[in-house]
Amino acid sequence: MSLKSFLIGQPIETHREKHERLSKFTGLAIFASDNLSSVAYATEEILLALVVAGSALLNFALPIAIAISALLAIIAISYFQTIHAYPSGGGSYIVAKDNLGDNAGLVSGAALLIDYVLTVSVSITAGVAAITSAIPSLASHTVLLCLIAIGVLMLGNLRGVREAGRIFSVPTYFFIFSLFALIGLGLFKVATGAPVPPPGPPLAATESYLAVFVILRAFASGCAAVTGIEAVSNGVRAFKPPEARNASQTLLIMASILGISFVGTSFLADHFHILPVANQTVLSQLAAIVFGGRGIPYYLLQAATALILILAANTSFQDFPRLSSVMAADGFMPRQFGSRGDRLVFSNGILILGLFAAVLVVAFGGDTHRLIPLYALGVFLAITLSQAGMVRHWLRTRERKWLRNTFINGFGAITTAVVVAIFAITKFTEGGWIVLIAIPVIVYLTHQVKKHYDSIARQLSLEGAAPEVEFEHHSVIVPVSGVQRAVIQAIKYAKVLSDDVVAVYVCFDEDEMEMVRKKWEEFGMGVPLRVLDSPYRSVIEPLMDYIEDVRVLQPDGVITVVLPEFVPQKWWHHLLHNQTALLIKGILLFKRGVVSTSVPMHLES
Amino acid sequence: MSLKSFLIGQPIETHREKHERLSKFTGLAIFASDNLSSVAYATEEILLALVVAGSALLNFALPIAIAISALLAIIAISYFQTIHAYPSGGGSYIVAKDNLGDNAGLVSGAALLIDYVLTVSVSITAGVAAITSAIPSLASHTVLLCLIAIGVLMLGNLRGVREAGRIFSVPTYFFIFSLFALIGLGLFKVATGAPVPPPGPPLAATESYLAVFVILRAFASGCAAVTGIEAVSNGVRAFKPPEARNASQTLLIMASILGISFVGTSFLADHFHILPVANQTVLSQLAAIVFGGRGIPYYLLQAATALILILAANTSFQDFPRLSSVMAADGFMPRQFGSRGDRLVFSNGILILGLFAAVLVVAFGGDTHRLIPLYALGVFLAITLSQAGMVRHWLRTRERKWLRNTFINGFGAITTAVVVAIFAITKFTEGGWIVLIAIPVIVYLTHQVKKHYDSIARQLSLEGAAPEVEFEHHSVIVPVSGVQRAVIQAIKYAKVLSDDVVAVYVCFDEDEMEMVRKKWEEFGMGVPLRVLDSPYRSVIEPLMDYIEDVRVLQPDGVITVVLPEFVPQKWWHHLLHNQTALLIKGILLFKRGVVSTSVPMHLES
Lengths: 605, 605
Hints:
Two copies of one chain form a homodimer. By secondary structure, chain A is of the alpha/beta class. Chain A has 22 helices and five strands. In chain A, strands 3-2-1-4-5 form a five-stranded parallel sheet, sandwiched between helices. In chain A, β4, α22 (580-588) and β5 form a beta-alpha-beta unit.
């Protein structure tokens, strides 16, 4: 208990829950980290996808970045609509479920949950890559550093860091500033004709390839930049009034910053002939060139990059538990995800997210590049379903400007659907299949969960039921292994339950039985002792037969089996006792009309 | 249940336990396999220990084998005495404990238990080596083959193969015959001057060495041959009368056969310039030379070797459970080792032995040679303690010929003590340290176990206790999470326990509480509903406070907390329910004067 308090703090009272409303300035800081941070790795992923073709396709990097920025704009405008239509918070799960039905909602929900896990893994590994690029001696501890970062985020969120939202402004604006400084200085150098490092020798293709496939795969990899754009639409209610307007403007500002910096860094990387290498990120290489070596500006940018990436991972620690609590409220996820812990946060969601992210980091060796093929597919699927849901929404409500809105969201839905198809095809063999299998599996499981809860609710319902009548008889049976204090305690307790108490002794040995009978005279508290024979040395079978006999005799009664139970002071002492009582309890659990009770005997050592 | 029956057979009734008495002929077959089978690897281990010095010390192999045979003779004569002094079975544990006290007995017991595990590992890996020498294509499956063999032995012993003791005669005598045929034919070839393969080029030492150390280590390695000699003394009672005479004669015959065949194979290996190689045993090489290639005689010998080694492992499956049951009867091992399973065998001992042996095989990669440094140390320690115990026995009893007997056992004890010292020094760094640490750890644990049982016995004892008086009052508390069928079942059950039943509802939400109160009117069976406030959303704390209040009010009464419990049809459905009831039960377990009871509600799906 005290370790828990130390790690996650004292419990918080329920009534202290409140919503601090956000201005556009703080709102941007809080919701933008996931989205903006992808500048740290998106250009590099495009280049990495292109180099399998050698030098031949490298000049496609900038056009791809521009195409992705256009896609970003389309999605931003689509979400602008959603925010105004769902001012109380329009996550994809809700929009898809409301307009397209449960299954669309669940596919969207499953896809998002998967992507929240991946956001943590990808952001943390990329953040650690920023650190190890600056401090190469840490490179061999990559996985450990990732796990530490996940652990810190998990603990922080279990404590409820959400409340400290304002602190987040610092790293976000610090990163935006550093990035703009880099791009500005870079463009200035380009404009003034600063010397450019000579391009390396032409690279040979590492495999035979289909140019269009490689380009589409590079596009898909770069699309990781778009993730996080849906964050604002989930959190409309967190903004100061007018909520929808503030939120939608924040969204547009965010998308613009991302578009500019993404195209900017891609242009500079191309201009300065930067290629992805093993132990240094592309952004780190670019910073070293533009800032003229590893001076203070370089280290500041790396620090800002690492910070915002960790912040990006942190947003998932709020999104995942929130989405799973919404799905739990609908009965599609285990109820435990819906209950808040001591600190008012959805602790189970936080723990599960941290666990899955850690597993992914370990499984993929802390390598961002190997995680990317799994990433963003879920987000784009969710965006597609969300936009399709909005189309349906406009067609149904025929609100003001419905035709224009239908067109905008429809265009968005078609665009992102095409992107999903590109993802599924180009990333399938590199790990995309995992996600494509996981989504239907999760959807299936959510249905099973729902089915179970519905069935329970039906079985527990007292709707139209008559009040219960009392039991006609209570038989109490005490299995006795010998005459000792724990057994006598059980007998003493049994006597307070009913007047019909029988002690039952399973006999293996005639001599021992005589001894038991004699001692029973003295200590048995007047309870009759029934001796059962057991040729196979089993306690269970003769006992169960006896219980069954009693049950048949008293069909409208109830039977209680009272068992003594040792409560040792050290856990390993459990191993020193035959667990016959536990076995009996386990079997009785499935026998109707029988309740088993353990009377604890507290051992001193 | 049916899987268990299929694997280990139907239960056997207690009264069917009987001792089939053994003649010398069957007795030798049953008790000798462990001892004799070591011929399969002992010579090889001596050579392996010597080759670190290159060719320089190889000619010491035969003298070492002769020295070990002399040691064998000394130990056999010592045990001859023990058998006559302890005709009811004089294992080292019993002899050492009786004469030198608990600690000597426990050291001896721990050492033997460790060595039984090692006997399984060493014999199985050596048996598999005999197979893979003959069929090299199986070599890559060594560990798997070892694990299969251990699994088969485990299942066989859980079924109770002991009964089929007579079958064992076949492989033992088959092995003795094959071995004698090999040695006889070999000596004949030597006598008739058959061509000898030319010795290889002289080998260089693989490390700088101290000759005396290498020789002593080779001696220690070869001492593995002696293991299993104590088996007869454990099983005196299994022989036909006159038990002691039959047993002691069997012992002498066994030692003679081992001595002859060990020295014989060592001589032939030396004569034919055989050196240990990676994928073929020394015995296999020798057989191929003597039998003139891989004909039928060669394959018969390999088969006999594999069979007797598996049989040797099997003896441990009888010795380990038997010794641990004896130690359990004394309270030094968990009681579970003392109870016979369905098939009258000590199932827990068999399972634990199989598990540990399998772990060792996996940890040491199925390599006999890497296991040898751990082996035999325990046996020699046990033999030393047993002989020392016998010295004490003679000095105390002053029976007939006590002076002669004291001398014989004293000489045996000193000799084996020297061997133990040689072991500890020469094998320490190669793994011997594991055993030297494990023995005191096990001895410590056995004392802890004994202490716990003694303490329990004191606490449970009714010696001089007055008969118990009945409880003055019974308060029943039913925590209620809402008004539904499971809760009402719990209330119905509670009402049969006492007239003082209170339902307790922990309130988080005023509106919900009003609804609960209204429904309670209808379904509550007249039980009063008590509402508790919970500012921190915890169910536990207000409930525990309430229980504490009731306890203080009725100090001479007892409290029962009745909880509804879902019994789902599928195990994973447990994950879908808040385990609050489990948590409450866990906490109440440690509260004196409170008993918690679960009323099962059987869910349909």
